[in-house]
Fold this protein.
Amino acid sequence: MRVGIIGIGLIGGSVAIDLRKEGFATQIIGVDSNQEHASKAVQLGIVDEVSSLEVCIERSDIVIVAIPVDHARDMVKSILDRSDKVIVMDVGSTKGGICELVRDHANRSNYIAAHPIAGTEYSGPESAFAGLFKDKLNIICEKDFILPEVLEVGLKLLSCLGSKVKFMGAEEHDKHVAYVSHLSHISSFALGITVLDIEQDEKNILDLAGSGFSSTVRLAKSSPDMWTPILQHNSKHLIGALDAFIDQLHDFKTLLKNEKTTELHALMTKANKVQEILEGKTTNHEN
Amino acid sequence: MRVGIIGIGLIGGSVAIDLRKEGFATQIIGVDSNQEHASKAVQLGIVDEVSSLEVCIERSDIVIVAIPVDHARDMVKSILDRSDKVIVMDVGSTKGGICELVRDHANRSNYIAAHPIAGTEYSGPESAFAGLFKDKLNIICEKDFILPEVLEVGLKLLSCLGSKVKFMGAEEHDKHVAYVSHLSHISSFALGITVLDIEQDEKNILDLAGSGFSSTVRLAKSSPDMWTPILQHNSKHLIGALDAFIDQLHDFKTLLKNEKTTELHALMTKANKVQEILEGKTTNHEN
C-alpha cells in the first residue's frame, strides 16, 4: 500500500518506520513544511521521497496527517475536498473540532479520526523510532461514520503498529484526555515556571532537585508549537479539569494551614490508589 | 566503626548496605518499632542484629536516625540526652524544627543534621538497595554547630555512600525543598485525586492515561505515613510554594479562557527552560 505522511516528526516518522518494517507500506511519500525535517526524513530513510501535498494525495492510498491539531483540522478537510478516493487518518490529540468540521463532508466516510496514546517529550524526525505504538492504546472516534472497508484498512494499519484499539465518541475522548493527558502537561509547565521564578530570588534552588521533581516536570520539555493548539482546541474540557485540580490543591493548602494531619493522611492514602489502578491498567486495554 | 540504624526502611536500609560494603561499618545494630521490618532487615542481612534503643546507643559509635520527621525530632533529642559520646546523624527531609529543638543542647556538637536528596516512591527494608546515594547531593545544615572531629566522621560516612555534600542553613534548606520536592509531591497527590474523582463519573478514564500521566503522578504512590509529618513540618514554606503554583495554574486557565495563544506559547517556552537547567545540573554539584 502507498502511504503518505503529512508531518514527519516523532509521531508521523514512527508510524512510517513501523509500516515499512511490517510490510504494510510499499512506498512512503512525505510532506513537511519544515524543509530541514523533510531532508532529514529522507536522509534517515524514514520516507522514500518528499513531495508537494498534491502529488502525495494523488499517489497515496492512505494519507496519515500528523501535524499540530490546528493545521490538522484544515488539512483533513482540504484532502477530503481534493479526493474522493484517498483514505485519510489523522493522529492528533483532540478530536471534537475536527470531527465536527467534516461531519457533513461528502467524503466523510474516507476519514478515520485516530489518537494513538503514545509519544515522548521529544519532537522532529530524529526522535522517531520503531515500536513507539506497541501495546499502546489507539482511540478511534465516531467509527459509525467510516466506510467499513476504510475502517478495515485503518485497523490493519494500527495492528501493524502493535496498537490496541478502543472506539469512543469525539467529545467523550476530548474530556478524558483533558484529565489524563492535557492537565498533566499544564501541571508540569506550571510547576516548572513556579520553581524557575523562585530560583531567580534564591539562587541554585534547582541544585536540590531530586528524581521526583524531574519526573513531575518531565512534560515541561514538551513543544509549545505542538501544545498551544492542543490546549486551545480542548479548552472547554480543560478549564473544568484545571478547576478541579486547583480545588484539590486548595484542599491540601487548607488542611496544612489548619494542621489537619488526619485528613491530610487520608487524602494521600486516597491518591495512592491512582498508582494501583495504573499498574493494573495494562490488562484492561483489550477491547 | 559500630553503626546504629534507627528505622530500617528504604533510606536507613540503603545507608546500612553501603556502609557495610565500603567497610565503614564493622557492626550494624538496627532499631525498628515495626517488628516485621526489623525481622526482615536481619533476614536480608541489612543489619547484624536488632536491639532496643538503649542497647543500640550504648554499643554504637554513630547512630543514623532514619524515621519519619515527627519522630526523628524527639529521637535525636532523646539520644543526645542519653549520651555525650555517640554521634547522631538524622536524614530527614525537613531541618528547621529539629535544628531549633537541639540548638542549645549540651551535646549539640555531636549532632549532624543531614538530608540526602535521594529516594524512590517505595518504602520498607525490601526496597533498600546499594548505591541509592551515589552521586546524589547531601545537604548538611548548620555545620558550624558540629564538632570538627564529628563532622569529619559524618563526611567520611557520606563519602562511603558516594554522596556530594553541600552546606546550608536549616531555614534556607526547608524553603528550597518546599519548592523542588514537597510541592512536587502535593502536585502528584492532587493530580491523582482529581483524576480518580472524575473516573467515578466517567468510567475507565484511566484507560487513556499514557506514560506522561504516569510520570506526573509517580509520586502519588509515596507513603502517607512518611509524608504527612514532612508536609506538616514544612507547612510555612510549603504554603507559599503552593500559592505560587496555584497562581501559575490560574494564569494558564485565564490565557486559555481568553484564547491568548501567543502568551500561552510564551509561558510554555519559559517552562522548557527548567528541563535545560535540570539536564545541565549534575555538573553544578561539586562543592
About this structure: Chain B has two domains: 2-168, 173-284. The two ends of chain B are 27 Å apart (CA to CA). The mean pLDDT of chain B is 94. The beta strands of chain B are 2-6, 27-31, 49-50, 62-65, 87-90, 111-116, 137-141, 164-168.
